[in-house]
Amino acid sequence: MKPIKIEHDKKELQDRKNINRQKWLRIVLLVILGYEAAGALSGGILLIAAPDGRIMDMPIDIMHGVFRDFLVPGIILFGLGILNTAAFVAVIRKSRADWIMAGLALGGMIVWFSVEIAILQEIHWLHIVWGMPVYLGGLVALILFSSQCAVTQKALLVCGILSSLLYVVLNVFIPMLWPANNCASQTVSELSAIGAPTRPIWLWLCFLYTLLMIVFAWGVWKSAAKNHSLRIAGALLIAYAALGVIWPFAPMHLREVLAAGGGTISDKMHIALAVVTEILFLLALGFTAAALGKRFRFYSIATFVILLFFGVLTFLDAPGVGANQPTPFIGVWERINIGVFLLWIVVLAIVLLRADKKSA
């Protein structure tokens, strides 16, 4: 009887910890939703009251002709404030639709800030003050609701597919905002280089990519159960994704600056971060290959071979970037590698989703 009692006490202690964790997660989510609601409602009212921006001391020309005045943005922002207020009420009442409302509210704010940064063509300090809590709220919401809803476990893995699709969209559309950029001869990092016109919107949307990858990696870790290799792979992917938070603080300079000797410590940090990121992913690839079936293992080996081949080609062309010399295919080699990586993430998500469906 004693072992049974010990097991019962352990389960009861774990249940209490889970209840306490959910309570604090809900409190954090409520604070963020309330904060965003207050900001959106007040900002929307001020813009509607004075569409010329005089109350908020914002000249109309900062929108670069997209809108004639701030009336339409004010109405949209006010609507987002109402949506965040509704989500706040749904979460505090623990309604069945609380996770949907929270997702719509926070997702709407992410879209708002992304479009705003694209229009303004810069990241303002207010974007950090009001925007970063939105990402934190999204992460908190996923952790909170995944413990309540079995469907959310699948949603965590679906985030891997969404992250890959988002990164493809970023690589297709953001270069269009910089006519001088050539995807074939320039690296992806140059889109976020210091002085690049695409840096603000790239950084902002890459925060969303980072969040999706962290959530997916956590989903991989949760899917592991007693599969130790897969659990290690999940932990490595979490570390890999978390480095995305550091990338904005380690940008490279434009080629012209590097060739003129204007490189700084951030360029060295950029290279070091790229190396660490690659090592973490390759380790995660290896542990995942060992954890899953033979077919996925062979697919992972093929992925590794392709990454190695085009990685060498990219490495051979890399000195030309710093010297501002022609690199006609470095963008091609690098984007092939990125595509292979993104596809591997999608396949891994599908494999785990199918395994989850069979176990159910």
Overview of this structure, please?
- This protein has 2 domains: 1-148, no CATH class; 173-360, no CATH class.
- With 360 residues, the chain is mainly alpha-helical.
- Helix 3 (98-120) packs antiparallel against helix 6, helix 9 packs antiparallel against helix 10 and helix 10 packs antiparallel against helix 12 (330-359).
- It contains 12 helices and no strands.
- It has helices spanning 2-49, 71-93, 98-120, 125-146, 150-173, 199-223, 228-242, 255-259, 265-291, 294-317, 319-322, 330-359.
- The model has no long low-confidence stretch (mean pLDDT 88).
- The chain is 75% helix and 0% strand.
SSE layout:
Layout: H1 2-49, H2 71-93, H3 98-120, H4 125-146, H5 150-173, H6 199-223, H7 228-242, H8 255-259, H9 265-291, H10 294-317, H11 319-322, H12 330-359
Question: What gap, in angstroms, lies between the N and C termini?
Answer: 32 Å
Largest sheet: none
Per DSSP E runs of 2 or more residues, the count of β-strands stands at: 0
- Low-pLDDT runs: none
Mean pLDDT: 88
Q: Work out the count of structural domains.
A: 2
Helix percentage range: over 70%
List key phrases describing it:
single chain; 2 domains; mainly alpha; 360 residues; flat
Summary?
The chain is mainly alpha-helical and 360 residues long. It folds into two domains: 1-148, no CATH class; 173-360, no CATH class. 75% of the residues lie in helices and 0% in strands.
